[in-house]
Sequence to fold (264 residues):
Amino acid sequence: MSRATVSERPAASTRAAPDPRGAYERLLGTFPQDGVTDLVGTLHFGEKVERSLALLAAAHREFGRHLVVASTLSTGVVWHLAKRAAPGVRGFVVVTRHMHRETLDFLGRIVARFPELTVYRNNDPLPEDLPRRDPDRCCELLKVEPARRAIRDLEALAWVTGVRATAGRRRAAARELELRPDGLVKINPVLLWHEHEVWKYAALYKVEVNPLYALGYRSLGCAPCTRIAAGDHERAGRWVGTSKCGGECGINTRPMKLVDGAGI
Fold:
């Protein structure tokens, strides 16, 4: 990938940064979150798409350039929705040395089409056996740390993710709008979508997806920690045989804002 290392921060805007809490509360007025996951089974596909687009558009009006999309772009659906709702929105992609070659090639094609996407990675020397020996530490260094740099460099006050309530046990309690302890607002526009609805959207809008899905993968991470797995749990192939099995890398669970070089 041609833009693997980021060395300069984007130029600062002269526009005053919005207050995250105030923006969050205004968004809650339009998108109340009490019992929101009940809508997973009551909204039809078209209603979910319209809600996602409306949420993204409203968030962009509130945060402007301080809203960024955080995405591995495995399906590209969240990025596609974000660009429909707010064509000027920026984003970042975290890549690691352990990703499948197919994933890196796929991401390279996407980033080449969208200069507003910035690639972040950690190039520091690390033990080759770290994924097996300490997967938590590996994810912290190769995924969470670059994501924190992206949040800092892009001056993000709110960030968009692809978290879905039905994607795993640790995601069931998520909300479309979250004011995190680190002061950032996290926005999950496809929270209410089922897995099959993601694929329906990708097919309808001809969104390019990672070719590894055609082999049977349902959730994609780094090659040493991702397997093709059968069963109902779509993240069952992640970190198989470790305490992290079916869990999270940390980008969606750890603090993202940096203060004096450390997460709050």
